[in-house]
Design goal:
The chain is built from twelve helices and 15 strands. The protein has four domains: 2-148, no CATH class; 150-183, no CATH class; 187-305, PH-domain like, CATH 2.30.29; 324-434, PH-domain like (Roll), CATH 2.30.29. The radius of gyration is 53 Å and the shape is rod-shaped. It is of the alpha+beta class. The strands form two sheets. Strands 1, 2, 3, 4, 5, 6, 7 and 8 form an eight-stranded mixed sheet that branches. A seven-stranded mixed sheet has the order 12-13-14-11-10-9-15.
Length: 435
């Protein structure tokens, strides 16, 4: 402390003795302190800017690396001069490094306002081996870009290939349904039946829907021409698509489906199935195959030889005894009951058999409907797919009521129609218990 006091007193004595020199010395000391503080402040700011510059560079490098991992030429250009859009500004990087306007994006990311000049001075003062190598790589790449300015074309090709790659998956779903449809490529087969040996040779057409394994799913009614059969296929397809099916219990105790049109008129019947579930599955198979089935252009011809006609007359009725209407029923294993009736001649010959009814009362009313149309003579004789003849009883609207039995010749079928007319009117109605 004494030394400090002596030094201070000596300075005061010197200042009193030479005040001009003392003032100059004091001013120089104050100036030195000011310069020292300025240097310290600048160094602190420089360190902060350097850290911000490094953070901005790392952020700029990581962002384009995630966007475009497949462009190795663009990564080194971003390191010396960070740019969020390296593909567009590859060529002007050299001009920007010369004029030094680069720090603007750095200022936005670091949220500071550094002047471009100090950044360049700090980068020049704090050059490291890594920065020198980076600048050398940048210069080499700039030269490459100047020599080959049309390097953007590969990027366009890549995008084109990417677009093609995105288009490929869109084509696959179109092919998959077609592959599925190939599994259900059934056929509509048109058959032509020609008779031989009858008084007048006849021909008749019908069609069948067959699955891909050849199984027959349905068989149509008879048509008089090929064009009629083709129109019938379209009618069947339309009603199959609408789901106009009805499952009924047959007289044999099994199940059968019927395809109806919009007016509930019968179009065709399917095969017989032991359970309702199997019949429902057959309907689903019919729907699948009918949608994709193609019409086979080759018509299958069937030749049937009809035996010679014999002149036979209907047997005379015995007085006081006629035929009989018998109402019968059948119950399936699943507990469903169906009713139907049959007309027999006095000799026990079955003349007709009705469709199925769900109640006994419905069957009784059906007999009265049949009697009226029999009396009106609403019959139609047709050649069947089996090569024989059958008559159909229709109502006033042309809707099928019932089918007769099968006969070898047309004349025998006509005789059966006459017998039905005679026995239908006066025959009593009994049940199968009193048969």
């Amino acid at each position: 402390m004494e030394f400090i006091k002596k030094a201070f007193n000596a300075i005061l004595d010197y200042a009193k003795a030479k005040p001009l020199l003392a003032g100059i010395t004091a001013a120089a000391g104050v100036f030195a302190l000011i310069v020292l503080t300025i240097i310290i402040v600048l160094s602190v700011k420089a360190s902060k800017r350097k850290k911000a510059m490094q953070n901005a560079v790392t952020a700029a490098v990581s962002a384009p690396a995630e966007e475009q991992p497949a462009t190795p030429v663009e990564e080194p250009v971003i390191l010396p001069a960070p740019d969020p859009e390296p593909e567009v500004e590859i060529a002007p990087v050299a001009e920007e490094t010369k004029e030094e306007p680069v720090p603007e994006p750095v200022a936005e990311e670091a949220k500071e306002e550094p002047a471009p000049a100090p950044v360049v001075e700090e980068a020049a003062v704090a050059k490291t081996a890594q920065e020198e190598t980076k600048t050398e790589e940048a210069s080499v790449e700039e030269k490459a870009t100047e020599e080959k300015p049309a390097e953007k074309k590969p990027a366009v090709k890549k995008t084109a290939t990417k677009a093609k790659a995105t288009e490929k998956p869109a084509e696959k779903p179109v092919e998959k349904p077609a592959e599925k449809q190939k599994r259900y490529n059934g056929k509509w087969i048109v058959c032509k039946l020609v008779t031989e040996g009858a008084e007048e040779n006849e021909e008749m057409y019908f069609f069948e829907l067959r699955a891909s394994n050849g199984e027959k799913l349905l068989s149509s009614e008879e048509y008089t021409s090929y064009n009629g059969a083709l129109k019938g296929i379209e009618t069947h397809k339309a009603n199959i698509a609408k789901g106009n099916f009805r499952i009924t219990l047959s007289k044999k105790g099994d199940y059968i489906f019927k395809l109806l049109n919009g007016k509930n008129m019968l179009l065709c019947t399917g095969a017989n199935y032991k359970t309702r579930v199997r019949c429902e599955k057959a309907i689903e198979s019919t729907k699948r195959f009918a949608e994709t089935a193609i019409v086979d252009e080759t018509v299958q011809e069937l030749l049937v030889k009809i035996p010679a006609e014999e002149e036979t007359a209907a047997a005379p009725l015995t007085e006081g005894y006629n035929g009989k209407w018998i109402i019968a029923s059948n119950t399936s294993a699943e507990g469903e009951t169906v009713y139907y009736f049959e007309l027999f001649a006095n000799n026990g010959e079955k003349l007709l058999s009705s469709e199925e009814y769900t109640t006994y009362v419905g069957a009784v009313n059906g007999i009265e409907t049949h009697r009226k149309n029999i009396e009106n003579g609403n019959f139609r004789i047709t050649l069947t797919k089996r090569g024989d003849y059958i008559y159909k009883l229709l109502n006033g609207n042309g809707q099928l009521l019932c089918l007769g039995e099968h006969y070898k010749t047309r004349r025998l079928c006509q005789n059966a129609v006459e017998s039905v007319k005679r026995f239908a009117i006066a025959s009593p109605v009994i049940t199968n218990e009193n048969k």
